[in-house]
Amino acid sequence: MTTIAIHQAPLQGFTDHIWRNAFNATFGGIECFYSSFLRIEHGDFRRKDIRDILPDNNSGMRFVPQILACPPEEALVMADKIAEMGYNRIDINLGCPFPPITRKNRGAGMLANPDSVQQLFSTLAAKEGITYSIKMRLGMTTADEWKQILPLCDIIAPSHITIHPRLGAQQYKGDIDMEQFAALYNTCKYPLIYNGDITTRAQVDDIKAKFPNLMAVMIGRGLLYNPSMLAPTTDYDAIHLFHSRLFEGNKNYLEGGDHQVLAKMLTYWEYLLPDADKSLRKKILKSTSLLKYSAAVENLFSKI
């Protein structure tokens, strides 16, 4: 089996610090965790976003806060806040494909505007004591837009660049463009991480075999489908333990009572164990109380 470092791709609303701590305690094996991107809304930070990146909530793991690529003045405010919290590494998200983001020339939307990227990088590079990494796509509307962006990376000399080989316009649909990824791989002078559609350990090994100089592979949804996917076989006992830690973590952290905890836990089953018995999963998703939810979950794990 090929050995390569694994990084965790953040998914908004799913991979918060409770998820990260539960995963790290149960499975380990992740070289670096990342927050979902920090952003400014209505002139201020969301309280839950700041709580999520607090150092005390992310101890015992290698953790990097992420910011959304946006106008330089906003990005600098976010970088200042993160530095005040004691961090010296920040990941810049140039890959978010969601239309409400990209229409405002943010996230992947910025890839079609090299001048905006240059201004962003120049502003952030002027802040001392911070090392940056970049997460991006091949482009927003054409698969060769990366050719205009890559030289601009010299402004901040990133520690690494993570590439999801789709367009922002594709969001998460359609084929990955491995031809363009290969071209970027052969051109890029910075350590490179591959991200996109990795759901099995065999796929990790295949990517590493094809691109032996990769720094790491980043996995997002694959870890939500099967948190034990890096093991030789699916470890249902470990997934059960992980779920218990996730459940207890949310019960202790969320302030909205049982209803909020139930709503949060049900979101994980949008992904978790999709190949499990459909009727048992349906009972979980139809749960109307924590008592019924817990019973349905225990029933599923007892029959796997």
Describe this entry's structure for a reader.
With about 300 residues, this protein is of the alpha/beta class. Helices cover about 40% and strands about 15% of the residues. The protein contains 13 helices and ten strands. An eight-stranded parallel beta sheet has the order 1-10-9-8-7-6-5-2. It has a two-stranded antiparallel sheet with strand order 3-4. The relative contact order is 0.11.
Structure in a nutshell:
The protein is α/β, with parallel strands linked by helices.
Q: What labels describe this entry?
A:
single chain; 304 residues; alpha/beta; 8-stranded parallel sheet; two-stranded antiparallel sheet; 13 helices; 41% helix; 16% strand; globular
Q: What structural class do helix, strand and pairing data support?
A: alpha/beta
Strand tally: 10
Q: Enumerate how many helices there are, as a single number.
A: 13
Our measurement of the CA-to-CA distance between the termini, rounded to an integer number of angstroms, reads 27 Å
